[in-house]
Predict the structure.
Amino acid sequence: MSTKNWPLWEVFIRSKSGLEHRHVGSLHAADAKMAMENARDVYTRRQEGVSIWVVPSSAITASNPEHSGELFEPAQDKAYRHPTFYDLPNELKHI
Amino acid sequence: MKEQLYQYLLMLGDNAMILGHRLSELCGHGPSLETDIALTNLSLDLFGQVRNYFQYAAEVKGEIGGATDTEVTEDSIAMTRYPHEYRNTLLVEQPNKDFAFVITRQFFFDAYHLPLLEALKQSKDEQIAAIAHKSIKEVQYHLRFSSEWVKRLGDGTAESHDRMQTAVDYLYPYIGELVQETPIEKAMKEEGIGADLSVVRSQYYDKVKAVLKEATLSTPQFFGFHDGGKKGVHSEHHSHILSTLQYMQRTYPNMEW
């Protein structure tokens, strides 16, 4: 028996029309078509979504955790960049 | 007429129930997490369909009445019949020898199930038409799932091809029974209730041949076929399935949980 694994895929689900696709997890599949079917079976069995994206995990370029200081810390003391000084109407749900 | 309708509903329900049980045996034992969940989903879909058929069958049996001292329900139909009273085809009771057998058995059934339900959507019996209508989306997915796997395994590695060809050669002689018309199916067809299996048959063989060809698998040259299941004559595997399925109801009659 082969011990070679299928490639890994990242799964994104749109929970309803108008919202963005969100990352929900990952899975293994031999190709894109099977990844789509596996995603349907693994991640949408409880009506979680209306649209699925699958992306090969190898296609994602990730930030290096070692660089998190230089990447993210400079934003910490710049509170004026946060849109917290506006009053948002209650009807706005997904901001 | 009512008795024939009852038997016809058993035929429809029993195929889904026995195949659903075979798939449920793989729960937690699938070759990968993804396929494990996929096969369990198929099983749950099939058991949902079984409930629809047997709830209606229980209603029909109630109208027939007769010498039964206990009430007929979907559960009593599913769990307390004797082996010869089950009308599933021999194909669906064949064991899960390996993943190739599971996928091939599923494909051979799905390719028949879809045109069957298409035909039943036109049934004069509103209940049957409604069940067919509801089930068809599930079965479209089942067929896509199983035929994609047949292609990938058949046209995959040398080992997957060999295992698939072994499964196809073993299971092919069982598919003739699916589209063989029994007297009950003939009567239901003439009433406008049941499907015309001659129509299902041509679509069925076309689909099977096309998918096997694409999967680089050869279609066996086999002219006879094994039958008996629809008449209640089953293979040795069937009683083993029932002894597992019926254990609780036989040991603790009328138990609920």
User: Anything to note?
Assistant: DSSP finds ten helices and no strands in chain B.
